[in-house]
Amino acid sequence: MRSEMSTRNDVDTRTYTVLRNEKGEHSLWLENKDVPLGWERLDFTGTVEECSAYVDKVWYVGPKRKG
């Protein structure tokens, strides 16, 4: 049986989803895997690159924003 990715040079064609925990931390997770306790699935799926770009866009690190 051959895995979907056999070497580091292969293109990752798997579908990922973005997870978030109660601390506001994000994680990329394979779409077909169960979500671990303490995490919720966000409404975004795509390639690892697309999900990473989404997290870069929505994740804020720093002092709490006013308003």
UniProtKB/TrEMBL annotation:
Coiled coil region boundaries: none
InterPro entries in the cross-refs: MbtH-like_dom, MbtH-like_sf
Record-annotated MbtH-like domain positions: 7-57
Species, as recorded: Streptomyces parvus
SUPFAM superfamilies: MbtH-like
Identification of the protein by name: MbtH family protein
TM region(s), chain numbering: none
Any Pfam family matching the protein: MbtH
